[in-house]
Amino acid sequence: MSKILEKFQNYIQSKKQHEGTPFIPYEYCTRCEANLTLQKGFDPTLPYWICLGCGEMLINPSSEAESNIVWICDECGTILNTQPGFDDALHASVPEWPCTNCGFVNKLSESEIYASEDEYQASQKDPYKGLSDADVLALSNYEEIDAVNDREDVLLVRHRETGQLWIKKLIAVYDKSVYLYLREHPIAFMPRIRELYESSNCLIVIEEYLEGDTVAALLGDPPHPLPLETSLHIAQSVCGVLHELHNLPTPIVHRDVKPSNILVTPKAQVYLLDMNVAKWYDPDQTDDTCYMGTRYYAAPEQAGYGFRASSARSDIYAVGVLLNVMLTGKYPKEAKADGAIWPIIETCISLNAEERYTAAELKKVLDDYLQNLHTRGGT
Question: Cis link prior to 222 (omega < 30° from 0)?
């Protein structure tokens, strides 16, 4: 919760800005050199500041604080030292402090103090921080084999007793209720969730391991077009999964349909992966609380454009972009797919969400297109 920090020690006294003007110490981060004056809420008179770029705790070199111990709320990350009345709490018989920002009661104990900034930063990245002993013991049953695609947050693991392979994911941004629901109500052609553990820093998911290649791997780098029937099969299969998600009692919007989140098995089965940014659909919501998604695949409403929050038709936008990329190797704005498939893609990526297909409609349109293709032998 708190940490001891060394004051700025002759930092940047010799540094100069681009045009030879003196560098002002408390206007730039000592770790990433970000311009603090551009960060929302920053005030050079504040005694402390957490850089919004890298998370580094900074102490104002002109601060007259008696101690260089900075206390941070375990719940919301707010600095407690500057909250009125906090200093008195430090000397109480039972030192604790309810954060005035979120109400969480923090313990003010020496055992909570980190010896250095590096130690604190390491603790903030520790995926197992805050887990119970029982959870740590359960996770120890999974031996880490390798990182998947060199990602430190997606690991191939083997259960020590059964020898079965699983995938372990360390997810920093998530809606736990979505994962809990999918664990109890699995969707066909999505990896089955086996176990969930929530630490202070992330959600740890143990899910089904599937052999195969992602569409991103099939496309290559730089992307090259896939065969027409392969592309249609993948798009139709994704529509099938989305139809199930979109027709739950409370629909789930995936919000991140893209090549790296679609896996094709050796038997040509298509799986939709990664529910990290998925959300429950709320018809009364007019804007997403957090703008999520991947550039070029995210619908305009996912980036705050329009008058509605993301919905099932936001996923259809992504499928349209996906289909164009599979057919051309390029985004629609770079190159349009040839022939009668383009009007289908164009409907998918309409700026007006209401003009897009539903997942079931798009699957049928693609079925009809494929049948006509076989009948006429055209494109």
Answer: yes
| 305 contact partners, CB below 8 Å, separation of at least 6 | none
Partnered with residue 263 across adjacent β-strands are: 214, 271
4-41: pLDDT as tens digits? 333 333 333 333 344 444 444 567 787 777 788 878 77
Query: Which residues lie below 8 Å from residue 70, measured CB to CB, with a gap of 6+?
Result: 2, 3, 5, 48, 57, 59, 79, 81
Express each pLDDT in 178-212 by its tens digit.
Answer: 999 999 999 999 999 999 999 988 999 999 999 99
Pairing of strands 165-171, 96-98: unpaired
Tokens of 246: 């979109």
Beta carbons of 330 and 309 less than 8 angstroms apart: no
Q: How far apart are CA 71 and CA 107, in angstroms?
A: 10
- Contact, 7 vs 68, CB < 8 A? yes
| Residue pointed to by tokens 């040839």 | 338
Domains of the chain: 1-114 (no CATH), 133-208 (3.30.200.20), 213-376 (1.10.510.10)
Q: What span, in angstroms and rounded, lies between the C-alpha atoms of 140 and 277? A: 27
| 328 backbone dihedrals φ, ψ, rounded to 5° | -120, -20
User: What is the rounded distance in angstroms from the CA atom of residue 130 to the CA atom of residue 249?
Assistant: 33
Helices (H), the chain: 86-90, 117-125, 133-139, 176-184, 215-219, 228-246, 312-328, 341-348, 359-376
Give the Cα separation of 351 and 103 in Å (integer). 42
The predicted-structure confidence for 119-141, as pLDDT tens digits, reads as follows 666 666 788 888 999 999 999 99
